[in-house]
């Protein structure tokens, strides 16, 4: 009897945890307003590619973190960005030297956080790739990994202390595969020059 009760509690707990991670991607507040690192991240302009936006337009309708169309858009868009910025090798794998050189900042509060995130994500991005997607470079997985790591350990000097931002950081910590758009705002993506 105890085994059945434990199993039921575990199953219900697992279902509740999964439900809280399958929500619409948070936009209020935008992650970049909670962890204000956009102005001190010199690589951000490359992430806002008008050409790649045209090749991979955002799917219409409600964008869910688990929506395959959204996931494909996100991963392939970032692969296009990396390709356009010579961050991929001829075999479409990440050019580690070029990526390390691009993902840097001179800001003393962000630099150590970003450095650890880049190192960690370069060693783990390939395990995050979805074999069902046609874009297999790992550029999207790497970028999402870096954004998540920077956001969850955002330097105190760049963090906006609020109930909403703290709740968003808690959600990102509890939902390790939930996408976070740290370097993009609702007004910037697809509206850049170049």
UniProtKB/TrEMBL annotation:
Subcellular location: Secreted
The protein's name in its UniProt record: Odorant-binding protein 6
Source species taxonomy: Eukaryota, Metazoa, Ecdysozoa, Arthropoda, Hexapoda
UniProt keyword Secreted present: yes
Keywords annotated in UniProt: Secreted, Signal
Native organism: Matsumurasca onukii (Tea green leafhopper)
Family: Belongs to the PBP/GOBP family.
GO cellular component: extracellular region
Record's keyword annotation contains Secreted: yes
Top-rank lineage group of the source organism: Eukaryota
Signal sequence segment: 1-17
InterPro entries, A to Z: Odorant-binding_protein
């Amino acid at each position: 009897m105890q085994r059945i009760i434990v199993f039921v509690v575990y199953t219900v707990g697992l279902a509740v945890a999964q439900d809280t991670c399958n929500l619409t991607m948070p936009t209020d507040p935008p992650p970049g307003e909670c962890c204000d690192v956009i102005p001190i991240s010199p690589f951000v302009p490359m992430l806002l590619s008008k050409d790649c936006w045209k090749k991979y337009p955002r799917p219409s309708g409600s964008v869910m973190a688990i929506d395959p169309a959204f996931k494909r858009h996100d991963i392939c868009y970032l692969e296009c960005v990396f390709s356009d910025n010579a961050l991929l090798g001829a075999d479409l794998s990440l050019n580690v030297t070029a990526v390390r050189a691009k993902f840097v900042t001179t800001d003393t509060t962000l630099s150590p956080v970003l450095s650890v995130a880049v190192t960690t994500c370069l060693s783990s991005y390939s395990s995050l790739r979805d074999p069902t997607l046609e874009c297999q470079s790992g550029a999207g997985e790497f970028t999402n990994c870096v954004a998540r790591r920077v956001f969850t350990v955002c330097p105190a000097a760049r963090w906006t202390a609020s109930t909403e931002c703290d709740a968003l950081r808690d959600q990102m910590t509890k939902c390790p595969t939930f996408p976070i758009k740290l370097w993009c705002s609702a007004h910037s993506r697809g509206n850049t020059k170049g």
